[in-house]
Amino acid sequence: MAVSLTVIGPRDxxxxxxxxxxxxxxxxxxxxxxxxxxxxxxxxPDVLLVDVRRASGLPSGLSVLKRQHPATNVVLLxxxxxxxxxxxxxxxxxxxxxxxxxxxxxxxxxxxxLLGQRTQPAGGQVFAFVGAKGGVGTTTTAVNVATVLAxxxxxATLVVDLHLAYGDAAVFLGADARFSLxxxxxxxxxxxxxxxRSLVVKTASGVDLLASADRPPNRVVDVRRLGSVVQLxxxxxxxxxxxxxxxxxxxxxxxDHVSHIVVVxxxxxxxxxxxxxxxxxxxxxxxxxxxxxxxNRTDGKAEIGQRDVEKAVGTTIGHLLPDDxxxxxxxxxxxxxxxxxxxxxxxxxxxxxxxxLAGLPEPKGDRTQSGFRGFLSGRR
Length: 380
Ligand SMILES: Nc1ncnc2c1ncn2[C@@H]1O[C@H](COP(=O)(O)OP(=O)(O)OP(=O)(O)O)[C@@H](O)[C@H]1O
Ligand SMILES: [Mg+2]
What we know:
By secondary structure, the chain is of the alpha/beta class. 40% of the residues lie in helices and 17% in strands. The protein has helices at 13-20, 35-38, 62-68, 83-92, 104-122, 138-153, 169-172, 181-186, 193-199, 226-236, 249-252, 269-285, 306-313, 325-334, 345-358, 371-376, and strands at residues 4-8, 27-31, 47-51, 73-78, 96-99, 125-131, 157-161, 201-202, 208-210, 239-244, 260-265, 290-298, 320-322.
């Protein structure tokens, strides 16, 4: 959901950064006073932040504005917790009060109280893919699931490569990205829907991509702000697919807005062992998020079978993606996700996985078993 916020008061870089870092604001406007909003026909922001830290009191006209536009949420920002100012604010219709020192948590909490009920249901679904081990096919799975979601739903779909630098998603999507996630994090004070739009690149497969940078950070970036980027993405896209680096703990700690985390494993001991541990850790860190494990490059003759993996991760494995190295490699070299082509088992399995994650119905009349079930039963 697009949320507009207008600040009444002098422009302030730190305040702007905190407001944008909530990840909820799609349009941020600064006004010196209330005059343009007082017209009964004037469009109102969803949230009005009245900064009185350097003022002698409330701006004149605030109670008039609240009478004319009772739905406008007003947050008052003061230099101290001043009971007289708070009382005056309450009488004028102020809903939230924040005082210096400015803290991110105060802004997040105030906007959650004001908008929580309104933003959550309207947000899109976010799917995060993380490898239990390097090279198991996490990026392959993530970009193909995103491609299927965009193709089947015709809804806006975004891939975010959460490797801060040197990630591969752009190669798999044949994209030449000028900007990256790092640009978002380095300019977090500018983060809004328009800025996000300027950073993503449209790809031929139908998905947008917020790519990984091909440079190291220019300065220290606060990776904890990733959550704000993901939340903003979810407010703009029906589906957001995250390609996660498994070893960056700060990234794994920024997944509050994710609907489902998929751990990608194969049948190697190291991957199976990690899948169990990662699944358990992610499950307890995000008790309300669904966490599941899939096996990629399934090998029916492998020493470690499906049951062994299930024992290690403590749950059933819902998806076994077949091994098709030639097709996977060719797709990567062409920058064209293999799921765009039908009639191959890997594509069918990825389609089944994407459908299940997003709850998209099977097409009518398609009663043949696709995906791994067909694969297992020998139907190809
Ligand atoms: N189902 C599959 N069958 C055969 N080959 C596959 C399959 N999935 C991925 N691959 C191949 O495995 C290699 C690694 O894939 P990918 O880059 O997606 O893995 P990753 O887990 O993202 O790696 P990294 O840890 O480096 O990020 C690639 O060459 C890819 O083409
Ligand atoms: Mg990868």
